[in-house]
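Posting this for the archive.
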Amino acid sequence: MRKKDKERLKYGLSLIPLGLIVFFILFIPIISVVIGSFKEDGTNLYTLSNYTYILKSKFYRQSFFNSLRLSFISSILGILISFQLSYSISRLEQRIKNVVLLYSNMMSNFSGLPLAFAFIIILGVNGAVTLILKEMGITDFNIYSQKGLILVYTYFQIPLGTLLLYTAFDSLDERWKEACSLLGGNKKDFWRYIGLPILKSPIFGTLIILFTNAMGAYATAYGIMTSNYNIIPIRIGALISGDVVLKPNLASTLAVFLVVTILFIFFINEKFIQKKKY
């Protein structure tokens, strides 16, 4: 056996532990969920009743619509703010830049129940900021509502979007701005004809990641709304660990719909949006 083949074999064998982890943690649960989605709860019969029930149910259709709307709005707001933050960070000194990126990295992991608890303390019924707003005469904001969830989702979307977009600005050369200026263009022309076309793929790719991140978020929404807001992750959780009736197979069907929706979004991104980088 040649030395090159031995090295390939060695590196291939070193990937076996990773392959086992992926197989047992990713593929087996997915296969189990897909198989369970075809079983009717309380029986061992394989049927499409779970799929037809969800498609005909206004309640579950509403959960999909609410999840899509919440994810779309928070992703758009997150990408707009992240774009400006990423551009601003790329123009800072390296020392300040490292501090800001460290903070963004830390905040991108601040989600779930801790984030929900923090917002309840700040913007809950008797939250610190809520009491200040009441003193100013602002009483119509409620964290326990769709607007409140959009605010919370946007908050944890911003650090992630900033980290993903920041590196994309390295592809912009300052000399292109000077060249655009010499040719009679202004800042608007630079972003319209040079900057945004180059950053188009990273922007849409980041938007897709933010969208899928919001679609699968459970702990944050549950920590704020418990079961009072109808979105897919909360419905799945209620069917698995609810207080009334447990329907794990119906929950598996909802999970399959959720995965198919996310895969469809990724397919659109891959086939119609993503372009080769310049």
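The chain has a mean pLDDT of 84. Residues 10 and 151 are 50 Å apart (CA to CA).
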